[in-house]
């Protein structure tokens, strides 16, 4: 396992439109992508870019809004009506190697690696094995940065 860049912090929001307005008007975010649905994950997603210094790549806030009552984050929003921090995502160079390594260490992987919102393979690690933080591991996108 080789820890890479922190790619994003996942933030659950009750309303995508209001969240985008907040990030633009209160935080002054200039780059927010058009929200898109990921029906397989049960969420609507949009990325807020936080620029790095001197033109380096910053990190992102991943806004996620539940798509209907079957969404895996529906319960989170019920418990946290204002929304809130949901997960942290780290990049790794090799997703299968990372999965094997975490499994060898006895960590609980939630499901098989699948294509995430950035178009590369991701998986989640149970928060009980990660100090209470739902953790997403994502293969570093190739050729984009
Ligand atoms: Co994420």
Write the layout of secondary structure elements.
Layout: E1 6-12, H1 16-25, E2 36-38, E3 43-50, E4 59-66, H2 74-79, E5 84-92, H3 95-104, E6 109-115, E7 121-125, E8 135-139
Parallel strand pairs: 1-4, 5-8
Antiparallel strand pairs: 1-5, 2-3, 3-4, 6-7, 7-8
Cobalt (II) ion is lined by residues 8, 10, 62, 87, 89, 136.
Strand pairing plus helix content: what structural class? alpha+beta
Lateral strand order in the biggest sheet? 2-3-4-1-5-8-7-6
Extended strand count: 8
What would the average pLDDT be, to the nearest integer? 93
CATH class: Alpha Beta
Question: Major β-sheet, in short?
Answer: 8 strands, mixed
What small molecules does this complex bind?
Answer: cobalt (II) ion
Structure, explained:
By secondary structure, this protein is an alpha+beta fold. It has a single domain (6-139), classed as 2,3-Dihydroxybiphenyl 1,2-Dioxygenase, domain 1. Helix content is 18%, strand content 36%. The chain is built from three helices and eight strands; from the N terminus they run βαβββαβαβββ. An eight-stranded mixed beta sheet has the order 2-3-4-1-5-8-7-6. The relative contact order is 0.20. Bound molecules: cobalt (II) ion. Cobalt (II) ion (CO) binds at residues 8, 10, 62, 87, 89, 136.
Which properties best describe this structure?
binds cobalt (II) ion; alpha+beta; 2,3-Dihydroxybiphenyl 1,2-Dioxygenase, domain 1; 8-stranded mixed sheet
